[in-house]
Design a protein that fits this description.
Layout (H helix, E strand, L loop, with lengths): L1 H5 L4 H5 L9 E3 H11 L1 H21 L5 E19 L9 E23 L3 H67 L5 H36 L5 E3 L12 H11 L1 H21 L5 E19 L4 E17 L7 H67 L5 H35 L5 H4 L8 H8 L13
Helix pairs in contact: 3-5, 4-5, 4-12, 5-6, 5-8, 5-10, 7-9, 8-9, 9-10
Length: 477
């Protein structure tokens, strides 16, 4: 019978429709690997981390000498007029004049080597090293978020594809019911009411099918945004069981140790602490070694009655010394900056406490959702089985006149609702597993065993940390 044939498409078959061999098949691990390698938001955060690496080198420059070469060339021209009267004479004064022009060239090489900076350079290096570690944890947190979004997008496409399949099956079933109701009405075994009820349910199913297709298209677009490719035939799963905690307290304990948001908060306290020490260095003496060598070349040409002639000279000069600066009072701004830095350190500690509480709440909630989703699957499967048996029974009873068309339509609606609930429960279980894995800080490429080239932030850090010269980045830009 056609009605029974329509009922054979179970929810599990819909969810696993992609398991058949296909060149276009995409596994969940494939999708996660693509998101890890290509997602622009994750790549942006990695770029921020590489930028933070350079701050360490900038801080290290405080230990290094500063060398400058200065050169100048100056041409001058002057005219001198001198009038002389002999004592007691009334004759006109003697006019003596001279024109002088000349070129002076100077070149100087200077060096300043910091000796003591009030420990500012040392603390600045430590501050930026802590900032680098914080950025790495921010990157790991972003990686978790992107992988969670990718897993959710993957499961949403599977969910919505299954829901479209269910609605298509429902439309076919109700179309058959409309045809059967019309046939019965034509031979006088049914009523116009039966036909109208079947047609109304059919049109409702068509509307629900269109909504399901629209939602599926939206989910596919989200898949493309997060993962970077169009979804094909989706299949596969991730073995989360080995990563998940056994209970809520264990989830909290793991999260407090591993979650990147907490680790970033710890490093941010170090950043604030060293920043305070850097500012306190403004109150300490500064000692620099200074040296310079220079050479000056001069040429001048004089004409007129005052010592005419051409003169050339050169002067070589060298100097070296130590410059000590002891701050006494600079208007009080340095004291205000120290007090502000202490408040910023206190803020960082409070933020860490808040982050710990948030992570704790997230871990407990995620574990509860995961457990609830598992129970929902068991209940949904039992509901689907019972609704399917009820529908088959109602159809058989309708044949012998013990049930009406409306009874069949209601039983079909209950079966569809149960199947939708099962699809949602299956999807929610996987998404809850993703959320719980992220809550304990294990949703990363290494723990998921993704087949990708792992991004190593240390490689770039080591390449630029002690780089004294060069404009090119390690990747050749």
């Amino acid at each position: 019978m056609k009605v029974k044939r329509y009922l054979q498409s179970g929810v599990l078959a819909l969810l696993m429709a992609g398991t058949s061999g296909s060149a276009m098949a995409q596994t969940l691990l494939d999708a996660l690997s693509l998101a890890y390698s290509n997602n622009p938001d994750l790549n942006e955060q990695r770029s921020r981390t590489r930028s933070a690496d350079e701050n360490v080198n900038i801080a290290l420059s405080g230990y290094r000498p500063q060398i400058n070469l200065n050169a100048s060339s100056v041409w001058t021209s002057s005219r001198t007029n001198r009038f002389t009267n002999a004592p007691g004479k009334t004759t006109p004064p003697l006019d003596v004049s001279a024109d002088t022009s000349g070129l002076q060239r100077n070149i100087q090489l200077s060096l300043v080597q910091p000796i003591f900076s009030g420990f500012q350079t040392t603390n600045s290096v430590k501050q930026n090293e802590a900032a680098v570690l914080a950025q790495r944890e921010f990157t790991r947190n972003t990686e978790q978020q992107i992988l969670f979004d990718a897993g959710t997008a993957f499961m949403d496409v599977i969910r919505d594809t299954a829901l479209v399949g269910l609605q298509e099956t429902n439309v076919k079933f109700l179309t058959e019911q409309v045809r059967a109701a019309r046939d019965r009405f034509a031979v006088g075994e049914g009523t116009r009411t039966d036909v109208a009820q079947a047609e109304a349910r059919q049109q409702l199913a068509v509307s629900q099918l269109n909504s399901a297709r629209a939602q599926a298209n939206s989910s596919r677009a989200r898949f493309r945004q997060v993962i970077g490719v169009e979804p094909g035939r989706l299949t596969g799963s991730v073995p989360f069981e080995r990563l998940l905690p056994k209970n809520g307290p264990q989830a909290v304990d793991i999260a407090q140790v591993r979650h990147p948001a907490i680790l970033a908060g710890v490093h941010n306290i170090d950043v604030a602490s060293f920043n305070m020490k850097v500012i306190e260095g403004d109150l300490l003496p500064q000692v620099n070694l200074q040296g310079a060598v220079s050479r000056t070349l001069s040429e001048s040409n004089a004409t007129g009655s005052l010592q005419p002639g051409r003169t050339r000279s050169n002067t070589n000069n060298a100097q070296i010394g130590i410059n000590v600066t002891v701050p006494i009072y600079q208007g009080g701004a340095e004291y205000a900056r120290v007090r502000k830095a202490k408040e910023d350190l206190g803020t960082a500690r409070i933020q860490l406490d808040s982050t710990r509480d948030f992570v704790r709440r997230t871990a407990i909630a995620a574990f509860g959702q995961y457990e609830a989703a598992g129970a929902s699957i068991i209940a949904a499967r039992a509901q689907v089985e019972a609704a399917r048996l009820a529908l088959n029974g109602v159809i058989e009873e309708q044949r012998v006149g013990q049930r009406t068309t409306l009874d069949v339509l209601n039983a079909q609606a209950e079966l569809i609702d149960a199947q939708v609930n099962q699809v949602l429960a299956e999807r929610n279980r996987v998404v809850a597993a993703f959320a719980l894995t992220a809550a304990i800080g294990k949703l990363d490429a290494e723990n998921l065993s993704l087949k990708v080239v792992k991004y190593d932030p240390v490689q770039h850090y080591d390449a630029v940390r002690d780089k004294w010269f060069g404009l090119r980045t390690p990747d050749g830009r």
